[in-house]
Amino acid sequence: MKTQRTLPPTSSEPNNPIARAIKGAIASKQHRERPYTEYRSFIQDHYDGIAGKLTSVSGLLTGHAILAGQVLKPNKFDLRGCKRILDAGCGNGRHCRHILRRADSDAFVSAFDLSQRMLKRSRRRIKSERIHYVAADLTRLPYPDDFFDAIICGWVLEHLPDPRPGLKAFARVLRQGGKLLLMTTEDTLVGSMCSSLWHCRTYSQQELREACEECGLVWHRQMYFTNLHRVFKLGGIIVELHRP
Question: Which residues are CB-neighbours of 163 under 8 A, at least 6 positions away?
């Protein structure tokens, strides 16, 4: 695989040079400083190790372990009627738990992750025969074209220096009329702190929206975990995308 390029900053980033300097100093630079294949192996080892174990703790501290269920509701990202569902980059199974609770009982649910140990952690946590686990790279999904009715991808796309290969892979396996719930780290001060911990990049809303539309995914609506997150612009970028 060729080294992926890092996208240039967009005009939606803050004009305050001090804010930009602080964020630049805090955010991880691993995705820029390493060739993609080397960075990919680095991230795999990162999550195979102590960082992967800490996801359960961090999910509780940030509230994301519980808040993830707030966007998987009938009045938000509704899974009812979706017969093929994908949890992309499932990690320790944080979203799998909510998917099983919200999806139809006869829905086919698949989950993949690059880290074998994260897959094992999810199996231990969920203990359900309904989930079909696969070890896979986001840019090389082992699924047929036009297969899934719905995809949930939480905090994974930011591990690609360029989001387009991942977004194109989602567009390929998502059927026409299907939908994608995408959650990513935003280019805020809090996002830069998350970037430092998880060695990922951050996205501006404008940059992400343009990349999604370029890959055939229409920005349908933005969501927030709670009204508090909406007011203070917390929780990263959470958006429902459609493949028309």
Answer: 7, 157, 203, 208, 211
